Each structure stands twice: as structure tokens, then as C-alpha cells.
Amino acid sequence: MKNITLINDLQIPGNEFFDSIIINTYFEIKELHDISIVSKESNYIKTTFDLINKASKALKDGGLLFIYGLPKYLPFFAVKLNDSVVDDQRFLFKYWIGIEFNSSEEYQVLKNGHIGMLMYLKTKSLESPTPFNLNTKEVRVSHKSCAACGMNIKDWGGKKHLMNPIGTALSDVWSDLNSNLADATTIPEEVINRIYGLIKNDNSKLLIIKQRKNAVDHAANSIRVLENKNNTLPESEINKVIFGDCFEYMKSIKTRFPEGVFDLAFADPPYNLLKSYTQYKDTQEDIAYIEWCNKWLNGMVDILKPGGALLVLNIPKWAVYHADFLLNKMNFQHWIIWDALSTPAGKLLPAHYALLYFTKPGNKIKNNYEELKYIDSREYCLRFSCIRKRKSQLNDTKEKMSDIWKDIHRIKHKRDRDYHPCQLPIKLMNRIIELFTNEGDVVYDPFGGAGTTAISAKLLNRRFILSDIDEKYVEISERNLNKVVIDETGKLDYIRESVKQKNNGNGVAKKSVEVGYLKLCKIHNKILGKDEIRSLDFEIHDLIGKYTGNFRKLQNICKRKFESEKLLIK
Q: Which fold has domain 4-141+176-210?
């Protein structure tokens, strides 16, 4: 394409500006299974960031910078870029795009498939960012049908009538590309074409810079197996939900057990996103939030046994800071992507939750991947009715689990949620605990919340300690633990009562209103307002008056459908 320029890192132009720049950092595939500790002061990190800094000078205000590379190194570049000023311009983190590659190889713990790509906006101000556009109306992912039931792979939850006929909106997890991991050192042409399609207008210019060979200098790994004759908690202290400050608890454990006592430490902290917790105020300034996170991360490292696993769940914006802090302390194993579509927001749908997996140097790690590696194929949907039917018919194709998890849904409905804004699904915790611990091991969660970690540990015959500063969540956790009972087959099961959702009181189904409105708009070939509907169809107008959804959003959906039909005609 005439507006795409490919150069190496010695050829960066000094008098030309681009709408978007992609930097293809140097790496080798074998580095995916090198868990050596890397210092942010290493020559590789410094040299690569110098390249990023130099290249960013050729980017226009409002331009997009993409940095393609290994998940192990990208956090260093992200944290540096967050604080960078180039010619009085700043860089605003927008996305960590997870790109999935095909691979038949298996490494230390999971099958590697994830190569990362940072996306930044160059802007004069972080408070009032320069506007930018992405062509997400045309660049979409084709709908796919379940190999068993024939319905759309994505469960639209009764909203199929609102689907865009062109395809589903692009998210920050790109699993639809067909590229092989062996070739991933060079950014795939499909990724370049997608980026160009997203930024394309009449004169858009894209610059691709491929970094030449730049060897990584690793820090020495600790191979000393640490001996501790007293690294077991008393039974009287195990299987408890503690009301109190996690910092004080971890400090006391470190004093009593200097070499660590836990086999797994898991954290799902507040995300600093104004969520409605009852005690913790999730509104800290960025720097204060990061410092607070570093404090509990350091405590979790201290209380783990050598060889123990540390897993931290957060959105990528904060996960880069967690990784930056941990990379020179622990062995990086995987940046696992939990592909769990959230509430639509921003230019790309936010589906990517980062699950960082580190292990503490000094002993052999625990890994049950061999027993758990086969999961249901992605050619199937996740509807319970479909799963039950196809399995009864022995329609049960499997695939190997990778470091991109697409088969676990978030808790979407209030009826399945306790009084907690970020409750995790049991299936996610079951996978983490089964993969990285053995029966009898002890798990610690500093932010106990609704008790999902403890429930999972109890179901899987592991032991646990949870802490929480909110007495209400301690009560919820203990109440939920009492719902783990022995079923009629003699196995432990978690029995919860679904909370019935309140009726909206008017007896009108949202779907019937939406279908009627979209049909009326199509008949008249225009996006209708409420006053226009009154003169055209009094019945639909009456239904709109009882509609509990967002009417303006419904109009926008109608607008996209009209635009999509025009694109299909093209």
C-alpha cells in the first residue's frame, strides 16, 4: 500500500510525520520459555526505549503508537512511556491488544499463544486528550456459528435482533487471525492491514519500524533451594476469613515465617475505577494507587514459599505496573489473558483482563497443566443448554488450553452475584487453583471479597486464608462458605440461591419494544424520534413510553444498522 512505509531502526525520518507508527521490537520465540529475571536497567530495555522515544518524534499530535513485542518486556516500555514527554507531548495508554497465534508447542506451564501490542495516543494533554478516530464501523470480526447448535458463538442474551449484520465490534483481544507462533517475531501482515484499516482516511500514513537484533541481558536466577523446617501454619489458623488489614497480616506472617508459608497467593484488587465498594474508596490518584499496589505485592512475595505461585488480576492499564514491579523480583511465567467482555466503552470493546502469573525463585514450581490441558473447543458456544445436549450426544471436541482464556464468562447477572461490584466466577478460580496448587496446599487472598477464592479452595480440597478490611464482606464470605455442602453423590458442591430480579412493573418486554421500533424505522427508511413515532404508529409510541432501556442508545443501534446495510451493499 502506498501509504505504508517499512524501515529498520536506523532509517527513522527526521522531517516527516505519520498518523500511526508500529514498532516491531526484536525478540526470539525461545524467549517465551526463558523465565530468567530481567532488569528494567538492562541494555535491551534501554536501547529499545531509546528507539521508541526517537520514533515517537515522527508521530503527529493525535497519532497512534503501537509497540509489538513479548508480554515479558512490554510492561517496562509502557511504564516508561506513561511518564515520557517528547517535544512537550505526552502519551496516553489506550490498550494492551492481545494477539493470539497458533502454536503446537507447550512450554513451562501453559501453551504460549499470546504476543502483546501496546497502543498509545500522542497528545498535548492527558487531562484533555487530542481527539482521534478509529474506523470501527467497517473493521469488524465476522459472526461465527456454534458447531453444535448453529447459534452465534457469542450469546447475545435475547438481543440477537440488535446484532450488526457485518460482524461483531473489534475488542482488545485479537483471536481471529490465522498466524503461526513460529513466525511471530515479525508482526503479521494481517495485523498491519487491520491497523491501517482502523486509521485509514484519504491521506493516512503508517510507518512500520522493525528493530534489528538486540540481545536481552538477563539477571542471574536464584537456583538455591531454600530450606525451612518450620514453614507450616498451625491448623487452628487455616481455613479462616480474617477481618483486618492485609498489610498487618502479611507483616506478621513474614516475621514468623521468613522464608514464606503459602503455596499460592492470588489478588483481585480494586481497579481504581470508582466501583461501589462499601469501605474502600476506589478513587485514589494514579501514583498513590500504584504505590499502594506495590506495597501489597511486596507483601505477597514475602509470604510465598520458594516455588510458590503469585497471580494478580487487573485491567492492563494497572497490570503493566504490577509486572514492572515484579519482573526483577520473581520469575515471569505468563501474561494470561482472560477474554471476558466487559461493558462496551472506548473505541475497542474492553475484553482483556490481565492475569499475571509469577513464581518465587528458589524451588520447583507446581504445574498440573498435563492433567488439565484439554478444554472444550472454541467451535462451540458456552450456552448451558447447548453444552448439556452436545455432551449427551458425545459431541465433545477438545483443544489445548493456552494463555488466552476465552471459555470463562464474567458474572453478568445480578441474580448470580453477591453484594460485591467485582465478584469473580467460581470457574476462573477453580482453574487457577487446580493449575498451580496440589491438594492440601494453602492459598492466600488479601482481598477476600465475596469469598470466591475460599469456596474454590474448599471445593478442590485445598486450604485457605482470606482477609478483608470490610466486615460486611467477611460475613458474606463466611455465609457463602456454609453453602459448600456434600451432595447426594458424596462430593462437595456449592449451592447458591439465585436472586430473583425485580419486574419493571409495566409488563412490557424490552425486546418487543426494540423489535417494533427497528421494524418501523426500516419501513420509513429513517431513524425516528418519539414525536415522529406518535404520528406513524400509536401502539409503538405507547410501548416506547414504557420502554425501560435507553432510547437514545436504541436510536444509535438503528443508525449502525442502516450504515451496515449500506456497507453490505458496497
A: Rossmann fold (3.40.50)
